[in-house]
Amino acid sequence: MKSMICHKEYKDKENFEIDLKDYGHDLIKLRNKILENYKALPQGRNSQEERRISELKEDYKFIHEDNELTKILEILSWYGLGGRYYNLDYITSKKIEKNKKNPEFEMDELIKEFLGKKDKNLYNKFTKPKDEDEDLSNTTEVWREVIQKYINPKLKDFLGALSRQFSYGVLGNRARECREIDYFAYNFKIKKKI
After folding, report:
1. Residue 149 burial (CB < 10 Å; 0-12/13-18/19+)?
2. Model confidence at 136, in pLDDT bands (50, 70, 90)?
3. 20-34 pLDDT tens trace
4. By the number of CB atoms within 10 A of the CB, which of 43, 90, 105, 161 ranks highest?
5. What is the model's pTM?
6. Torsion of CA 141, 191, 74, 26, to 10 degrees
7. Nearest to 1 by CA among 31, 22, 36, 28
8. Beta strands in the chain (DSSP E)
């Protein structure tokens, strides 16, 4: 996401004067900056451009309005900003930000929320009381299934949306030269809800 900000800065001002240190690991702050890129979408001059503009508008809506994606980004952001030290801070009695929980706990809560709405069978596997003699591989398998079914698709859609800003020229011609990104732009499309 930081590279997107750099490319957009270069496209708009032909320099890289922006200080990325201000963003750190705050994915929500980075996401909000990237959402600004959608404000100046041009009108399509032909059917191909109109299709691309339409896809970019769908991307904007997804990045801006998908609550599950936002919650995933918030948890990852909290982890990157300091949550990864939560247990050490707790043990050493360092001040822990009010209302902040262990990122692992927050991810568990998010997964329960996803599963409660979408997959009762997996929810029951995920929330059943853990038996001390239970094989840990079962817990690992449940986590793996949850991540594959519910977390990864959101992150793939997010990656696809970000990639289309490169491929469709939103970030300028220099960004279009990042050809490796095309795979994600064309293979991870936002699925419209019917």
Report:
1. middle
2. very low
3. 777 777 889 999 989
4. 161
5. 0.77
6. 120
7. 31
8. none
